[in-house]
Structure formats: C-alpha cells, structure tokens
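lol ok so funny story. i was supposed to be doing the assay writeup but got distracted and ended up predicting the structure for this chain instead. priorities right. anyway since i did it might as well share w the group, maybe its usefull for someone
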Amino acid sequence: MKNRFIALLLSIFVFITGSGIGAAADIIVHNGESIQSAVDNATHGDSIIVEPGTYYENVTLSTYDLVIMSQSGNPDDTIIQGDGFFLTGDAQEITIKGFTLKGTGTSYGVNLAQFSNCLIEKNKIMNYGTGIDANLYSTFTINDNEISNCQSGVFVGECYYDAVVKNNRISNCGTGVVVGDLGDSKIENNTIRENDQGIALMYEGRSDIAGNTISFNKKCGIYDKADTGSKIYNNYFNNTVNVIFDSYHDNPNTWNITSTTEKNIIGGPYIAGNYWAKPDGTGFSQTHYDVNGDGIAEETVKLSEGEIDYEALATSENSTPEQPPGATNSTVTPSENVTSHSEEITDNNSTNSDGSSDGNSDDSSDNSDGSSDGNSDDSSDNSDGSSDGNSGESSHSSGGSSGGAGGSPEPQTNVQVKELSQAQVINGKTVMFDFTKNATCVVYVSFDAKKTAGKITAIAEQLKGKSTLTSALNSGEVYKYFNLWVGNSGFATSKNIENPELCFKVEKSWLQDKKIDQTSVTLNIYNDKKWSQLPVKLLKEDNQYLYFTAQPPTFSFFAIAGKATQEGTVNETQAKPDTENLSNNTGNNTENATTGVEQTSEQKESKGIPGFEMIYGIIGLTGVYLYRRKR
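and the output, tada:
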C-alpha cells in the first residue's frame, strides 16, 4: 500500500514537471548570437529579448504566442539586416516590437501568416518590396511603425477581422498602404507622405480611412481602383492630385459621416468630411469658407460621378483676409512693405482661418475636387488641385517653405496656434511679414526680394511640442517650438530672396521661472536633417518680453532654447527627492528591482510552475502517513 501511494505521488510530480506546463520564460539573445536559434528553442508564451546590436539573418517563426522584442525598446539600437520576419501558419498571437529591419529592396520586412493574430509595433522598416504584408485572413494591429523606401509600405489583403493600421509614419514608398482583394480594415491616424501614391484601393478591397494626414504624395493621395466602396472621412489631404479614380463601381465611397461632436483633424468642433488642401494653397478647403461657424463648408465637393464629400471641412468666412486701405475685392495696391492681413487659428477655435486664400478667386463657384478617372487627357488643376493621372508630379521640398497658405507639412494635431501674414513681393524691395495679432512667438519675417512674385503668404505655427518631422533637440531648456513657411514650396531660397531676418520674442517670466541666463538664449533651426544654432541679437525689450533677431538660412522648423544659471542648477538639484532614504524605505525590493532580465526569468520559471503548492502538500501528507504507519 505504501509503495503504491508513493508511486502515485511520483507519477503526479513527473506529470506536472515534465508536461511542459510552466510560466513563460524570458530568453535573452546576446549580441553576436542567433535570433533564429532562440526562436527555435522557445515554447509558446516565451519572450525573446534581443540585446542591442546588428544581426545578419532572416527569422522564421513557427511557434504560437511569442513576444520578440528589442531589449532597449529603441529601434535604432537593434538592427536586423535580411528578409526580416516570416511567420508560418503555426505562428499565431505573435508580437514583434522595437527593431530596425533593413532589406535589400525585395521580399518582406514582416510577412504575416494565414489566420495569424499579431501585433507589429514601434519598428523601423525600410528597403523592402513590402514593408509589412498582411494577407490571407490574418488579423493584426500594425501600430506606431516607421516604414520607408519600400515598394509598398503596408499591404492589406483578404483580412476580415480586426485588421488595424494606425499611428504609422509611411514615406518614400511606391504606395504607402495598399488595400487589396476582399480587404476589410481600418486605416487610422497615420502620416502618409512623399510616396508615389498615398493609399491604393484595389479590386474588392475596402477600408475605413479616418484621421490620416495624406500629403505631398507625387502621383496622388488616394488611387481608387476598387469595386467596393470605402468610408473615407476626417482626413487631411494636401497633394497636387488628391484622388484618382481608375474605374467606376456601383458602390461609391462614402466621403463623410454625419457630423459628430468631437475635435476633427484641423481642430474644428465636428468630425464630418475631409479637409481638401493643395500645396499651392488653392485646394477646396483653402478657397471655400464655412459661413455658420461649424467648421464645415456650405458647399459640397464633387470628386467624381457619385463621389461627393457633402461635409468637407473648412474655416470660417469671418476670417476672410483684410484688404489694404483703398483696395477693392479684386485688386491689391502694391507697395514696398505691404502686410495685407494677419490671421490667427488656435486648437480651441476652428472659427478662424487655417491657411485659406484671400477669397478673391474667380473659381469659387467650382466645387469640384478636380478628380477624374485617370484616363482623361485633361490634366488641368481644379479647385482642390486634383486632376487625372497624367498631371505632373509634385512633392514637398525641404528647401525652406511650405506649399503656401494651408500647405504646412506639420500634422495639425501638433499645432497649438497659427498666424498668417500676406505681403507683396516686388523685385528689389524689402518684404515684411508682420504678425500683428501676437498669437505666436514670431514677431516678423523680412527679406529682400530678388524677383517679383506677387502676393504670398507666410505662416507661423507655434507647436504643442517638438515637430513630428524633426529629430530630438538637445540644447538646454526649450521655450517654444515653431515652424515658419514662406510662399510656395521652394520659393524661399537664395535665388529668390536675400538678407532674411526673423524676429522672435521670449517672455521674461519664463526666464525668471526657469532661471535662464538671458545671454544663453539661442534659436535652433532644423535643416538638412539636423539641428544647428543660429546667432541671435537682442533687439529691444518691454515689460513682458525680450525681442531677438536672427538670420536663418531658410524658413523651416525652429526651437527657442536657453540654459539655466548655476544658481538655478543648484536649486534644481536640491529640489530632487531624497532617493537614498527612499531606497532605504523600500527595503530589499530595491535589490530585486535591479537584478536584470535573466534573474527575472528564473524567478518566473521557479514561481510560475503550477501545482508546486499541491506537491508540497502531498509530500507533507505522505510524511505524516509514513510516520503513523511506523508507529
């Protein structure tokens, strides 16, 4: 009896410990080791954590429920050069996070398997045929990735359930996002810019497309060859050609939803239709106004037969630019330093101008977006700047200016306040753009004109934080981030202007609160993909502000910064919490918190095996039983 009881206990112990039931393990891949080897030795539920380094391999996943991620979480630290990740049909519930994937111009960065349910997040993917291929009934979330220089950024095809592409930045690809056969997905809040085509809707592919900034794509913003209709609303379009229709179908797209009370993509009070801009400032939403203050144009946008945005976003008619004294609605009297108007828009009021033109355009009765079927020989631009597929290509230049009024490449969700100023540009004259409403930290912009360009617009955008289009700035305490755009793309260059000057102001209270040394104030400019400092000169001061001037080589992304005095640094140090006492109060938990990933995985394995408490209990009972038998 005793032997059989002990044999039973041993059988239970062997079953529990040998059945593979246990907690997920963290497998560390050290620099120089193989990621594929770690994958091959993993079981479902494991996390594969890859140390910083460069790994030259292709990785095939065939185990379900795995997390594979970089240790640092910074894609720049952990690079995989090769064909990226290939998921077989057994690779379900996979998370891939925090890598830079570099290809050779072919194959896939991430190839999702049939019926897979995956999360692809916070990666940089570049130089592939397709950055992320999601096909064959897979469900997935592709979130917060940076995808560039691929033939297709993301391909979505035959995906029926919870297929989501959101918060990604896709640029310099043949097509940013392709929705293929039988697709049914959500494309939300992405920045899709400077591709040949922004989004391509193909065959029976459909999608809900909302909250995206689709701008400066060379051929078009959306290429529509689908036989089914998509729902496309609350997007910011800013392309020379916004839409090309390459086929007619019985189920047209829906270009707006019923007005819903919620902040829209340009900061207005209602989500409804789309904002239709054009880099040269002549888009529908830039030339047609909202009359009743709801942020929606009173006229509709006819994109093509049956393709109509009934509630296109627009700015208020109340913000129509003021004319100089003595000017009529159709003429402007030139002068040496004319500032025609200054307008303001904040994220709290959509009722002011967001880069609209001066309202004098003769084509205001033309509601068409200018889109056509792609087979037309007529390539003329219309009110939204869209046309057929034969129009010339256009892209945003980093050479110092946006596409004129409303042509900022900055996502409008990051713009805190905006002010516009217009002036006549006459060869040999000094041109001054005064920002008289004092909405931003920019006071004026001036330059000497080397050619006559007529009336142009300067835009000052004060941002909520760092521009989403620049790298991080390491230059002391930042006072304000702002953008400046002057004229159409490529205008503000040395061949057209000289002696550029920028005047900006800094609150004295900020200097006092942050204990900033006044002489340390700098103006930083982001140009040629890097930040640099410009010399500044104190122009004047009043009770509230210090006014500085600088001579920027171009107009683009700026940041005002300063450095704290030594006294400020000392005070800041003294204000820090007593970390030593804090750690003493936490006892041994501090030691456990710093032991590293590998120790954590051992703890997980030892603590996580289910049934250990039961085993210890059974062994205790056995001891009691044997003791009593012996007596």
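The mean pLDDT is 76. The chain is about 15% helix and 35% strand.
back to the writeup now i swear
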